[in-house]
Structure formats: structure tokens, C-alpha cells
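Could you help me review a protein record that somebody else here produced? What it holds is a sequence and that sequence's fold in C-alpha cell form. I need someone to confirm that the C-alpha cell line plausibly describes how this chain folds. Take the sequence as given and treat only the C-alpha cells as open to question. This is what I was given:
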Amino acid sequence: MNTSTACPEQLLREITLLKQENAYLKEQIEWFRRQVFGKSTEKIVEPPAGNVIFLPGFEELLKPVAEPRKRIVATHERKVPSRNGQDAIALPADLPVEKQVIDLPEKEKVCVETGLPLVKIGEEVTKKIAYRPGSYFIKEIVRLKYALPQESSGGIRIAPLPESLLDRCQADESLLADIMVRKYADHLPLYRISEILARDGIGISRQTLCKWILRVGQALKPLYNEMRKFVLASGNVFVDETPIKMLEGSKGKAQQAFMWMIAGGKEANPSYRIYAFRTNRSHIHAENLLKDYKGILHSDKYGAYEKMAQKKQIVWCPCWAHIRRKFVEAEAGDPEFRDWILRKIRYLFMFEKVAWSRSPEERIQIRREKESRIIDELIKAVQNRLVKGRILPKSKFREALGYFCGLIPYLKNYIDDSYARLDNNVAERALRPIALGRKNWLFVGNEQSGEAAATILSLVQTCRALEINPREYLDDVMRRLMNHPAKKLHELLPNEWALSKNPQS
């Protein structure tokens, strides 16, 4: 523009546009700076000096937590495993052997036709690699064989093998349970597990380990389905999803798939975690996972959940932590108003911390008397700010205001249910094992492997949340599952299993 001929109004408009563009670019630069160099915490707003919320019991919750004790872990050396390209299992010659003798009952050692006693003619030996924390050994299952002293139509009699989760597998359930825990609780990829076994002289290839995991995941599917019913029947569900890589065909390329997570239960921190592998993030997957569910749903602002809420299918409680994050990222725009919003949201979380230390009835009372009023202030202020004052249409501040306004009809849904929460952090915490795992094992091989991983992850992470040793649980359940009545499958769920082992827990 030629400034010599421009009128003052045109110059003023140009200056205003340049200022807005400058503010928008500064906001983008600040956001990128925070992503690269900034802290991940969202604790920005500090309460003004002397502004204390007087609520009984609040002071105890602000006491500093004692530093955890630390110990030094010694380093170790690794042996390089010898790979010959075969799947044969190699065992050291001095591996201990423990025998388990299975004999026929005394009444079956007599021939029904002649009444003569059977004569032992040999034994059938089945060998399995077993695991005891800290050591490996060969578990020899010896089944005594009997027959008549003379030839007879009675034939040979032998006790049947104990039921096994994987038919004709050389691995005992104790070893399988250890492998599952190492991968899905300790986040070790299979090649590292193979190396760890090789250090003790156990040569099991990565391909064999992969086959075992796939078969275990398929065999445990009935128990997984029972867990899913239990979670959805709770009426209080948290859901989220995270990307995960999956190999695409024989080309070896990785495509983006998703691991969904559903947690549920009537408790402060629901322990049951159900993972579900899907090849994409389509709305249909969310609808199928929550099919026929009518209770409370905590989630982020994903369109599938919003659509379900609009149809009155669920009582949607959107996550206030996501709302806070939007305003934290709005570096420019209106700093004073942004800080006021973040301060009010912080008060909500402070009241919730106190409320969860009280009884369910007191929790609802605190929410109605304290938190509801704060939410009304926020709604009124955000609506007025959108109407009054200039806001850059593409700024993060405008995005945060729009995000908030889109959730206004649902912001107070958590208030009247004592087990509903202000945020969806239960689901986000449950996704952390996936975030840690994918940095180590990187991808799943195919859709079947992803489904097997989801099944085993559900059992292992639920055990961890319930403070159950997942190795002990899997070892016991895998031995009992094949013979357990289908109508009583709920008895093998982690919480009921723990109660059966220790009724006082």
C-alpha cells in the first residue's frame, strides 16, 4: 500500500491487522518453544498470597510427600546368543529336573474282566520347560502305564495328562506366564526376552515366543470377554485411545493402528483395564466397544462420544484436564483472562481432591455447593468473552474458548454422581503402559497379534492395578481355564481370584 496516499483509517486497519498477525505468530513460536524446551507440567497459575480455601481436612492434603527411598542396581554382562536360524529349543545339560508322577487310582489297577492286578510295563514321559522366580528347570511328568501280565483285550492303561492351555506346547504355564509379564508388564520386546533366556542357556527363538503369545492371547479370549462385561456393567466408564504401529503385509512397512482402553468400576481409581486393538480410529469402533452401554462415560472431546451424548445414549462427562490443557497452550490472546480461567479450574481440582477424601454423600454436597458455582462463573465469563472483544479467529486462545463452549451442556454432569470424576485421567494413566511399550517393542506384527496383545495386556495391567502378582495369577488361571465351568468364568476374574486366595484381603 502507498502510505503517501493512504487515509488514516486505512493505515489504522493495516496496523491492527499487522498487530494481530504478530500476536498470532508469537503464540505459535511460544507453543513450539514449549514443546521442545518447556516443562510438560500444566501447573502455571499459583493462587494469590493469603487466598486460602477453608475446608476441613484441606490442610492435610497439602502436606509434602516424603521422598521415596532409592537403591543402586548393579550392572550385568550379556552373552551374545548363537542363532542358527532354526526354531529348535536348546537346553543346557545340567538343567535341574523335577518329576511329577501321575499314577492310576488303586481301583483302576485291576482288570474289570478278569479281576487280575495290572502289571507296570513302563512309563510315558512328557517334558516341559518350567519357571520358578529366579530359576529354570525341566518339569518331567511321568505317567505310569499298566497292562495285564498276559495278553488280554484289556489293553494298556495310563493316567491322562493334566489339562494344558496350549496343547502340545513344550512350555509349562509357569514359563508362559513369565514371558507374558516380561513383555506386557516390563515392556521387554521378544528379542530381549530371547537374549535373557539365552544367558541361562535356554535357546528359544523370537519366532517361537511370538507363536506362544499369539496362542495364549487366543486361549484367554473367553476370560477377556468376561472382564469386558464386568467393566461395562459397572455404569462408570473411562475411555481413551492411543496410536500404535502395525506392520502392513509382507512389505514390512508400518501403518498406524490404535489401541483403545476402557476402564470401569465404582471406586476412586477403577482397577479393571480393557484394551482393544483396532486398525483405525473410525467412529464405528467406539460405538461397537460401547454397544448397549447406558451409564456414565468419561472421555476427551472425540466426535464419536459427543454423538453418543447427543443421542442420550450415555451420560457424558468430558475431561476438565483437556479443557485446562487448551488454555495452557493459549500463550497469547488475553493473558489476564487466561490466567483467571486457569485459576478457577485449579480451584475445581482442589475441591475435588478434598471431596474424594470424604464420603460419597459429602462429595456430592461439596460439588453442588462449591464446584457448581465455579462452573457457572466460567461459563458466563467465556460466553461474554467470545461476544465482546476482538479475538484472532485462528489463535489458540479462540480455539480454547470454542472448545469450552462446545462442552457447556455436559460440564456439570459429574456433579450428581458420587463416583463420576472431573477428569479422564484414569484412562490416560492406563494408557501409559502402551506408551512405554511401543518405545521398546515398536509395533505389532498383524491384526491377530494386536488382538492377542490387547487380551494379555488387559489381564496383566488389571492385576497390577489391583496389586496382584500377574505372574502368579496367569500361572494359576491358565492351568484352570480349560476345565473351569463356563457359567462360573467370573470366578477367574482378578479380583475374585484374589479373594479366593486370601479371603481377608
